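User: Let's play a game. I give you a shape written as tokens, and you guess the letters that built it. Ready? Here's round one.
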């Protein structure tokens, strides 16, 4: 049988969540005060932090002896899952004590360790670095970055985020029964960010990756708050996208003029050309804890609007296209965005891709590319 052990308040909260999910295991709670609402057959070990802990800012550098009662309890099981959160004395110090103890090879451990939220202070961030450095060579550790939850649930209360933390850590305990939607959806989102938009548009509507990406969008949009702050951020993004779209078109027209001049001068290489655009969206601060997105945008796409070549299109058609693209109000939600004039690119991102309103709010940088393809056609004699 699996032995699930909660060390400290954070770890024990996850155990309570696991019990509510019906997870079958032997349970041991190590914390204070005692939790009288728990069933009688749950092992409870009351543990008090020493008085000096509150006065010593570097308490986490010390080592403590593994409590005998906990040692005996752990020796009864060959499959122990230790759940704790770094930051508090009990969870941190007892996790160190269990890691340091010379267990027989037959006694196996898995460690699910939550790392603190940033609002809990810089001292706890130093604690994480010290802890990870001290135990980096120890096997079967899984760190759960709780700060990522706060970034993906910016409109949630602190209480709600802590509740999500219990769910997220439980998903690490029992990965075949993941209950947190954000955790479920982050994998296809990261995969798509790395593969790029072209692979997304090749997905079939019934493929799992496509379905999960759009379920994620619906999930986040249902949670999203259209408050004054978020409306202002969206308008700021909208104005930036509108301005950069015009600038990109202007540069494309300059490039086209140059290419046409070269072709008129009988340039022997340029047979034809294509001009396209690519937009990349970045949020490095939000995704700093996700290794796969280090140095990568979280979304990139070729916008659905086209650059009309003068060789293929009349001037009146080009003017009409630019009028529609730049002057038309593409605000599809006037009841929410009252008085906002949305550019086509914002409409394109929110209505023609898997991005949610939260993704739009999270944008930190926008990269525009004007892509020029010079073509040469040769015929073999």
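Assistant: Ready! My guess for every position:
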């Amino acid at each position: 049988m699996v032995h699930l052990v909660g060390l400290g308040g954070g770890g024990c909260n996850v155990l309570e969540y696991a019990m509510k999910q019906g997870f079958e295991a032997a349970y041991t709670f190590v914390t204070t005060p005692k939790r009288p609402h728990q069933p009688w057959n749950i092992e409870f070990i009351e543990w008090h932090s020493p008085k000096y802990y509150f006065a010593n800012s570097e308490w986490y550098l010390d080592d403590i002896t593994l409590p005998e009662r906990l040692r005996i309890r752990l020796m009864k099981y060959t499959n122990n899952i230790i759940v704790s959160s770094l930051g508090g004395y009990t969870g941190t110090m007892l996790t160190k004590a269990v890691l340091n103890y010379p267990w027989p090879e037959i006694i196996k451990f898995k460690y699910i360790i939550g790392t603190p939220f940033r609002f809990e202070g810089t001292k706890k961030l130093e604690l994480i670095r010290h802890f990870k450095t001290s135990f980096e060579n120890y096997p079967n550790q899984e760190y759960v970055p709780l700060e990522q939850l706060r970034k993906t649930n910016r409109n949630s209360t602190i209480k709600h985020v802590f509740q999500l933390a219990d769910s997220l850590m439980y998903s690490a305990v029992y990965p075949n029964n993941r209950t947190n939607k954000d955790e479920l959806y982050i994998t296809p989102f990261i995969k798509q960010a790395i593969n790029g938009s072209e692979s997304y548009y090749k997905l079939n509507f019934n493929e799992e990756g496509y379905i999960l990406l759009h379920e994620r969008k619906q999930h986040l949009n249902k949670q999203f708050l259209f408050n004054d702050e978020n409306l202002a951020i969206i308008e700021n993004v909208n104005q930036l996208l509108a301005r950069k779209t015009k600038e990109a078109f202007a540069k494309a027209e300059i490039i086209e003029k140059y290419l046409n001049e070269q072709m008129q001068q009988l340039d022997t290489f340029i047979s034809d050309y294509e001009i396209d655009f690519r937009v990349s969206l970045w949020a490095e601060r939000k995704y700093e804890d996700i290794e796969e997105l280090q140095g990568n945008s979280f979304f990139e796409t070729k916008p659905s609007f086209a650059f009309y070549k003068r060789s293929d299109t009349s001037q009146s058609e080009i003017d009409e296209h630019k009028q529609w693209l730049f002057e038309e109000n593409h605000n599809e939600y006037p009841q929410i965005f009252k008085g906002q004039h949305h550019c086509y690119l914002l409409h394109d991102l929110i209505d023609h891709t898997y991005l949610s309103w939260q993704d739009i709010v999270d944008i930190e940088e926008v990269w525009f590319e004007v892509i020029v393809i010079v073509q040469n056609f040769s015929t073999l004699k």
